[in-house]
Amino acid sequence: MTGEAMICQENAIHYCSWGFVVSGLLYLLRQLTAHTPYGRYVDTKSPGVMVPARAGWFIQELPSFLVPVLLFLTTESLPGIGRHLLLWTFCLHYFQRTFVFSLLTKGRPSPLYIVLSAVIFCSVNGFLQGHYMLHCTQYHTEWHRDTRFITGVLMFFSGMAINIHSDYILRNLRKPGELSYKIPTGGMFELVSGANFFGEIIEWCGYAVASWSFPAFSFALFTICSIGPRAYHHHRCPPPPKLFQNIVIYDDDIYKLSAGSSKMSSNLELLIILLFINIIHSEPKKVLIKSLSIYTYWCT
Ligand SMILES: NC(=O)c1ccc[n+]([C@@H]2O[C@H](COP(=O)([O-])OP(=O)(O)OC[C@H]3O[C@@H](n4cnc5c(N)ncnc54)[C@H](OP(=O)(O)O)[C@@H]3O)[C@@H](O)[C@H]2O)c1
Hints:
By secondary structure, this protein is an all-alpha fold. It folds into two domains: 4-239, no CATH class; 243-299, no CATH class. The protein is built from ten helices and four strands. It has a two-stranded parallel sheet. NADP nicotinamide-adenine-dinucleotide phosphate (NAP) binds at residues 39-40, 105-108, 163, 167, 170, 173-174, 179, 181-182, 184, 196-197, 200, 223, 226-227, 230, 239.
């Protein structure tokens, strides 16, 4: 592809990659005490603007696809099959995430500031990976036959298959319009509770091995720090047993009292107390809290 020659912005690549390493580690530390507030951990009481799930995912993931594609179309890239194969594997992931996952998701709305943060991250990452691959890295002409390349690409596609299949399983747990949580089964969920996150981590570790570059390793590390703890939080806070899935609480204050009790040691205890409140409460119409907000309280 011919276009404007683009000089490698070595300093930008270096600082962005270190930025991902440092911010990834800080994000990991942050998640030791807090959950990232989207999906099941969204704060239903915060007054902020919410973006519908499909629009949110589409807008936030698009830059990771668009920026490398535009760089490819408008600038002159260095020669080599290896670099182009790698660029297209990166873009393939984000094509799937932007044009398939986003448009099929049945998730709940996300806070606007989460979507905007993701737009910034995906734009920077799209530039970092695309620019580095097209204009900076020097691979030998047989890189696409190198063991690192082959191993990494195999990891990438295995991870991608696990991620897509696991997201498919999660999506099919719900009927249209439904927002409740159920226990996922089948596929990799038989072995790992956060199978979709596991697949994504394998994918980006594979990409890092195949491209053998600091920018790709820094993104893989950021991914581990970002969704690793989320997978752990989901594991610690699984969907309620079927019997309790449709519990509705009628009194906000009583509920909060129960949730804040120091005697509360497990989700099951909380559920039993909630059920008890539900049975004995004399004015069930007082305050209605959806079962999804119960979930938010439990898990935070
Ligand atoms: N590379 C990265 O740094 C990065 C960062 C974030 C996400 N991702 C990827 O983006 C995808 C989505 O991430 P996520 O954090 O939204 O994943 P998630 O919390 O597992 O949710 C995925 C979808 O499944 C629904 N869901 C989850 N558990 C469910 C259950 N037990 N029953 C019914 N529905 C359930 C969620 O609905 P709700 O919205 O209602 O909870 C959401 O629509 C994943 O593939 C992840 O790997 C990548």
